[in-house]
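Can you make up a protein sequence with its backbone structure tokens?

===
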Amino acid sequence: MNTPREEFSAAFKSLQIPNYRILWWAGVFSFMSVQGQFVLRGILAWDLTGREGALGLVYLAFGLALLVSTPLGGVAADRFPRRTVLAASQAMIFCSAAVMGVVVLAGLVEFWMVLVAGTVQGVSFGFYGPARVAFSADLVGRKQLGNAITLSLLSMNATRIFAPALAGVLAGVWFVGIGGAYLISAFFSFFSLVGVLRLPKIQIENPSSRNPFADIADGVRYVAGKPKLRRLVLASFFIIMFGFNYVAFLPALVKDVFNRGDGALGVLSSASAIGALVISIPLASRADSAKAKPVMAVSGAAFGALVMLLGAAPTFWTAFAVLIVVGASTATYMSLSNTIALQMASDAQRGRVQSLMQLSFAGFGIAAAPLGLLAEAVGLRLAIGVMGGVALVVSALYFAFEVAGSNEAAPGLVGQERANVRRG
């Protein structure tokens, strides 16, 4: 059995690679920017309209943009140097934050501008996500892929503890406000861009020169032809699409149900990140384990059940406690599902497979609008319960078809485990 010191060292082994360490820190600054903007867009949408449906529309704009751009982002990650793709997408995130900061400070902000900002960020993330994960694999190799992905999520979740709270607090401070918070977010994006430009420009071997849509179709056929990979992609799509939508309605939950202000929204938004951060360190040292698949399925079911519990939380601090455990289950599910999917994928298809996994966040954005209307019709608490219920049912179905009925080990990295991947 490994000592605690050995476990800790194993959890952070990918950070011993200098270029991955630069990519990781660039991700920290990027996530600080992006997650702050998520909170700020929600605050603006609620302050400008006071409607749950408007919150849904903001995420719908993000989701539709992500839906269109993510498949193209997967093609770009398999065709162009991934540093170039990352730099271009990060520059877009910077420009969006800077412009929003200026229009808010100038008193010119309107609801349609919030929708445009969500659209720009959706397009940016459609290219950023597949390129970042594929670049991580380039820098650390397939053997450490699970560790690298988990550490990437750790950076995202660590910033979720501070960024939403910081954005919410700054938005409520009179001499900073929402406009100043947006400009601070823009500075974080700029620092991320500087880090990305320090990374090596690794050329893609034998890149495709076909029509991009033909490459997208090829990626879809590749996933469809591998039953285990297909089931994983579909399950992840619906679990994130419905279960993760609680995030879109936190402003309404905080302000309308718990009667709290912007600072409380930042605190509640950070709660799930605390749980995610706590679980990420032990998870990072075990993400490449053969036991990954059953753990992933159980964490997905727990995620759905906990979101249902969030909808019934009687007080603000009860919701805070529930969200801590929600964060732990979400981080576990996302880390392992992405790791398993990319272990199943060939190197030539890695970007497109990751783009299909990321489409779940496009579905999350698209589902936010009808779920917002549902919340207005039946009440916010019941709507959140429906979100968690769908995630729970899908997780149970995946477990029944893929884990309980199979004696195969989860896809691994060497020897017999790789043979299982090829058979799947």
